[in-house]
Amino acid sequence: MNEADIPIDIHTLKLQDWLVSRRIVPKNIQPALKDIRIKISDALQDMPSHDQLILLLKGANINYFHCKQIVEILKQTEKDSKSIFGRYGSKRMKDWLEILRLYEKDNIYLAEAAQIYVRNVNYEVPSIRRQMSKWEQQYEECLKRSQDLNKPESAFLAEHTTLLQHLGVKGENLKEEFIEALKTLPTLHAESIKNIKTLEEALNLYAQTTGQTKQQCLPILGHLMEFGNTTVYQYCHKEPPLSVEEPPLKLNLSETQSGRSPADNEVDYGDDNGGTSSTISAEIIDFGELNLETETELVNEAVDIDWGGSESTAANAVEINFDIPIEEYGIVVEGAGMDGGIAKGDQAYTLLDSPTYSERFTDELCELESFLKMRLYELRHLDTSSNIMFSLLDNISTHDEASTCKMLTNVEDILTAISCQQTRHLFQLKHSTKYGDLLASKLKQMLKAVEKIRHTRETLKQRAQELKQERAALNPILDEFLNQTKQLQQCIEEDISKRYKCRTVNLLGGLN
């Protein structure tokens, strides 16, 4: 086999050691390169204006092959200084020719080219590619995170819309809208118990089983079935009031209480006279010293008490006239029946609107529900021959499993109706002074969260665009390094090939 046909394969990582081991380049080239760099810096201070030179010097650090191109350009620009002996009198030309001479001495140019080539292959190009890959990954992450924010934004908006729908408001002016929504609360209460008559059969069964009347076992349920959602006054006194003075609504969303105010030093005794609050300064009132013995003597002297039993005292007794009209004493006797009093305070609320009686009514429904569930369990699981079943036959003989299930369904429907979201929110809003602030704060926080999510999404999108631009800006830099590396590889392979009878030289492990 001809020796010229055998290729020379050199691994990139061992290129510099290969050149040194074959004594092609010296082992230490740094002092010579330092002198060359100084001369290049001085020569660049005086360069002619030429487009190719400007383009050539715009790139990376100048090496031997750049210097050869510069000399070729100077041959055109400095041709007037060429003598008849073929030498150039221009200082520019002399400086660059000297630089080429220093490069070619001891093959410094080949060692430098190998050094630059290895650095580009092992460090520069991979570093740029890693940076590009990193920015591509960050770009995709920013887009993904911005898309993922759509889900919590939709959740907050849906929750905000649902809460507004439950409250029956639009969210523009909460205080006025809350007051307007509270006017619908009686209608909601009436709607929730419109089918309460369907519980009559279940109530009769429960009363029959417990051996009590309907008013005794579940009094509020029985009252609602008979009279509807009346006032607490009518439920307690068994007669409707002449008039109803419901406590004023306490709803203030504009002021936030922090700390104690001067009014906290006063004792509030509730609302009276049309809602006018009577306050007494919390000061010590001195009523003086009270002598019980002296007071008793004064009373005994002022009133001579006749304990009866003696004729003398009876004769001296004053005759009492019982025929005096009661109008003279200013006593007003209220009528009976429909001529009741005035419902004030908590008794002015309806049964479903009163915190106390509404909770008791819910307890009664739960009690009835538990009773029906137990009955249904007994009908499904207990044997007809058991003693327990025989003891219950008299009470449930007319109610089979299907009828009991129907009664249970009716109870559950009423429980669901009185516990709907809108009714619960409006109920708390009416009877709790802080609930309105909590609702307003919750709605505001939802909108703030949505705004923050949108701002974050816009920030992520802007960052994604910046990363995309930075990634695109690396493309020309990478292309420049790739072109430089390929040119260096070609020059190194050709130079080594000339030294070994034009054998084929392959640099392995280079760029793909």
What does this entry show, briefly?
By secondary structure, the chain is mostly helical. The protein has helices at residues 15-21, 30-43, 51-57, 64-77, 91-104, 108-148, 150-167, 174-182, 185-192, 200-210, 214-217, 219-227, 232-237, 292-302, 311-316, 355-381, 387-396, 401-418, 421-431, 435-499; strands at 8-11, 243-245, 266-272, 276-281, 342-344, 505-508.
How would you describe this structure in keywords?
single chain; 512 residues; mainly alpha; two-stranded parallel ribbon; 6 strands
Q: Would you mind describing this structure in some detail?
A:
This protein has a two-stranded parallel ribbon with strand order 1-6. The protein has a two-stranded parallel ribbon with strand order 2-5. A two-stranded antiparallel ribbon has the order 3-4. The radius of gyration is 52 Å and the shape is rod-shaped. It is mainly alpha-helical. The protein has helices spanning 15-21, 30-43, 51-57, 64-77, 91-104, 108-148, 150-167, 174-182, 185-192, 200-210, 214-217, 219-227, 232-237, 292-302, 311-316, 355-381, 387-396, 401-418, 421-431, 435-499, and strands at residues 8-11, 243-245, 266-272, 276-281, 342-344, 505-508. The chain has a domain at 8-134 and 491-508. A hairpin with a 3-residue loop joins strand 3 (266-272) and strand 4. One of its GO terms (cellular component) is endomembrane system. This is CDK5 regulatory subunit-associated protein 3.
